[in-house]
Design a protein that fits this description.
Length: about 375
C-alpha cells in the first residue's frame, strides 16, 4: 500500500509539473498577456461578433460547451435579424450548436458579455471578440479561466490581424497545421488574383454599394478604400471622401458619380432596403451609366454578425471576374465557392449558401429591368 501511495504521489507531482511546464504566456490580439496551457482545453465558449466563426475555422466544434443564442437556430426567443443570410459556420455546424447551453443572447444589441450564463457553461477557456481590455480582464477574473480576444482588423480576411488570430488559435489549441493551411490558402488566392490583374491598364470605374451595417445599408453605402478592389487592381469610382471605411454618401454625390460608373456591384445585404426605395422612385438609378448599360452585379452578403471571411474572399474573385472577364473566364463561381468552403469548413457549401433568401440564387448579373420590381 505504501508503494502504491508513493507512486500515486509521484504521478500527481509529475502531472502537476507537466501542466506547469506546458503553460505559457501569450499576447492576445488586443495586447493582453494571458497564461494558457496549449492543447489542454476541453470546454470552450466563444462570445462576441465573429468569435465563434473564427474559432470554427481552426478549433474543434466538439469542444464547445456553450453558444450564444443568436447562433442556436432551435430557439424561439433569440436575435433573428441575420437568419435570411448565409452564415457558413452556422450552415456547417448549426446542428451541433443547437445542443449546447446558452452562453448569452449575443447579437449586435449585446454590448457586454453575460458572465453568469458563461459560468453556467463551465468553460475552461473563452474566445472573445469584445475588444475592451478592462472588461476582458474583469471577465477573466470573474470566470477564473483564460479569456482570449481575437481581432480581424479593417481589411478582414486579408488583414494581418486575421492571419495572426488564426495563428493564435492554432497555438492555443495545438492545431497549427490547420491555421497554416488557411493562412497559406488565403495568401495563395490573393497572389493568384494579383498575378492575373497586375498588368491591367485599361480599367473600368466600379461602384460598390450595400456595405456596412445590416440594418441600414443601401445603394448609398460605399467605401473608397475597398480592400477587394485593391487586391484585384480595380479602379474605384468613389474618391475624395473625408474618411476611410464603409460610409454613406449623399444622394447628390451618387448622381455626380453616375456618368463615371462603368460597373456597379451591389452587396446582397442591401437588396431588402433598396427594393422599397426603388418602388418609391424607379428613377433613382437613372444617373448611373452602369445601370443604364446593364452592368450591375450581385455579390454575396458578407456581413452578418460580423464578417463572413470566406465569403469576403469569394467576393473578391467575383469582382475580379466581372470587371476583367477575359482574365477570369476559367473561373466558375460555384466551383470557386466550393473550393474556398472546402478549405475553411471541409465541406462544399455553394448550393446551401446560394439557397438562402438573401443570396437570391447566388452570384449573378442583375436584370435591371426586373430585379427590384
Amino acid at each position: 500500500m505504501k508503494i502504491r501511495k508513493i507512486v500515486a504521489m509521484l504521478t500527481m507531482a509529475f502531472l502537476a509539473t507537466s501542466v506547469f511546464a506546458a503553460s505559457k504566456k501569450i499576447t492576445d490580439m488586443i495586447g493582453r498577456e494571458v497564461t494558457v496551457n496549449p492543447g489542454s482545453y476541453k470546454r470552450v465558449v466563444c462570445i462576441g461578433a465573429g468569435a465563434l466563426r473564427m474559432y470554427s475555422y481552426i478549433g474543434s466544434v466538439d469542444l464547445l460547451c456553450g453558444v450564444e443564442d443568436i447562433d442556436n437556430t432551435s430557439l424561439k426567443q433569440r436575435p433573428k435579424m441575420f437568419d435570411s443570410v448565409a452564415r457558413p459556420y452556422v450552415i456547417a455546424y448549426g446542428d451541433k450548436f443547437t445542443k449546447l447551453e446558452s452562453a448569452g443572447v449575443g447579437g449586435p444589441n449585446t454590448q457586454t458579455a453575460e458572465a453568469e450564463k458563461i459560468l453556467m457553461c463551465n468553460p475552461d477557456i473563452v474566445i472573445s471578440e469584445y475588444e475592451d481590455k478592462e472588461k476582458e480582464d474583469a471577465l477573466q477574473e470573474q470566470l477564473g479561466v483564460p479569456v482570449i480576444t481575437l481581432k480581424s482588423g479593417p481589411n478582414g480576411v486579408f488583414d494581418d490581424n486575421f492571419r495572426n488570430s488564426m495563428i493564435l488559435l492554432g497555438d492555443i489549441f495545438k492545431v497549427q497545421k490547420k491555421a497554416k493551411k488557411i493562412n497559406d490558402f488565403i495568401a495563395a488566392q490573393v497572389k493568384e488574383i494579383q498575378k492575373r490583374t497586375a498588368k491591367v491598364t485599361d480599367k473600368p470605374k466600379v461602384y460598390i454599394c450595400g456595405l456596412g451595417n445590416w440594418g441600414t445599408t443601401n445603394h448609398l453605402m460605399t467605401a473608397q478604400n475597398y480592400i477587394s478592389f485593391d487586391i484585384a487592381n480595380v479602379d474605384n469610382v468613389v474618391t475624395g471622401l473625408a474618411k476611410k471605411g464603409n460610409q454613406p454618401i449623399e444622394k447628390e454625390k451618387f448622381v455626380e458619380l453616375g456618368n463615371d460608373m462603368d460597373i456597379m456591384i451591389i452587396d446582397a445585404a442591401a437588396v431588402k432596403n433598396i427594393k422599397p426605395l426603388y418602388k418609391e422612385d424607379p428613377t433613382m438609378f437613372d444617373s448611373s451609366k452602369a445601370w443604364q448599360n446593364g452592368e450591375v452585379y450581385l455579390q454575396m452578403a458578407y456581413n452578418a454578425y460580423y464578417t463572413n471571411y470566406e465569403i469576403a474572399l469569394i467576393n473578391t474573385w467575383f469582382i475580379a471576374k466581372e470587371v476583367y472577364p477575359e482574365l477570369f473566364k476559367d473561373i466558375d463561381m460555384t466551383a470557386k465557392t466550393n473550393e474556398v468552403t472546402k478549405v475553411f469548413f471541409d465541406a462544399e457549401m455553394a448550393d446551401k449558401i446560394f439557397s438562402y433568401p438573401s443570396s437570391f440564387g447566388g452570384y449573378q448579373k442583375i436584370d435591371t429591368a426586373t430585379f427590384f420590381n
